[in-house]
Write a structure and sequence with these properties.
alpha/beta, 7-stranded mixed sheet, globular, binds nicotinamide-adenine-dinucleotide
Length: 428
Amino acid sequence: MENNQNEIETESSKKLYEGVCDRFEQIASFVNLDAKVHSIMSQPKAEIMIHFPVKMDDGSYTLFKGYRIQHNNLLGPYKGGMRFSPEVSLDEIKGLAMLMTLKCALAKLPFGGAKGGIKYNPDEHSAAENQRITRRFTIALRNNIGPSYDIPAPDMGTNAQYMDWMMDTYHNLYGRKIEGKAVVTGKSVSCGGSVGRASATGFGAVYCLAEWAKGKGISLEGTRFSIQGFGNVGSHAALKLEELGSTLVAVNDHTATLVNPDGISSAELAAHVMKKRGVKGFQSSHEVDDVNQFWAHETDFMILAAMESTVTSKNAGLIRTKLIVEGANGPITPEAEDILHENGHHIIPDILANMGGVIVSYFEWVQNRNSEYWNSETVDEKLREKLISAYRQVEKVSAEQGINMRNAAFIESLKHLEEVYLKRGVWP
Ligand code: NAD
């Protein structure tokens, strides 16, 4: 049986975890966070790590390593994505789970924070193998997830199809009870998903960007943007920003970098990526070998929608843009952030910029539990309302205290969690 599942931390996952923990410690001491809340929040409540065998198409078996980290459930059931990627590691998932707790608290959702994943590359497997891997993982986790306990969602390497398989597996295990559908969010609409969930994270990032531009008196018409990552979050952000009048001029993903000052059509690129699983091969004449040409290309906005720790002290100094929007989780290392602030760049932080996904996940969960189906206008209106309210609150704290938006967002989340802990007390 193939077995290559030792715990290996990549540099980027270690950086993400350390960055989240360092920021948490800084803000906890800045706001003088209650000592017990500080210690509870500093560690996840549960760290689940499992190994499970799956039969491959050729009849052989492979052992997979899966994770589910449940960071905190003070405000409601654990909530967070499932990432299927060879880069997945314990530290990465722990860092992302803590960010989910903070994001749900900032969005004032009745959810705690979690994250999970499997350490493997779904692109290297057939659809049948991916389905068996997902179902076997769901069975292994069955006593640790549930519509009122822990509700996974898509993340890197997973999409509505994977959520449909997870929901179907759980639904069958627990006797097809109606509420079983709410065990995961981000399902396809025909299987109980919400309209607007697939686009919510990317659109949400652009709603934050538009709010920032409005505050600065900048019209989006005629502006230019670059984007890293053209998957779920990146492609939807690009489509929405283009619709609002901005032009995509540079894009980078794991396959290639394209730079075209005359503009790159987001819709055509999205169709290409859907077929080819990457931007490579689209407008080949504008493909560049040196990724630094992407970082250094002058734009009004840069959207980071790939993965953690892609902006480091090595490339931060090259960036020439007014605003960076973190569609991805933890894309900027702490050292890079210092450089960006010194150079006068503004950053809309991940727990605010990419909260659109978990907001519409919450709408999906509510619809499933009430057997309701909302239309896209209702979903979009409610999404904007929740997101813009969180954005304005963070902006207010940032202005009042003279601090950057990331610190303001962390303060807002932690103060909310602290208030609830202090009112409820720690049982018994
Ligand atoms: P996805 O798998 O659909 O897309 C990931 C993109 O990143 C792809 O375009 C891929 O080419 C690119 N990429 C991967 N490795 C790269 C590298 N080394 N350099 C450059 N590009 C690289 O994933 P997604 O769902 O769009 O998620 C992207 C990010 O957004 C992740 O950080 C995820 O945690 C975060 N996020 C996603 C959601 C959601 O609803 N999907 C919600 C909140 C946050």
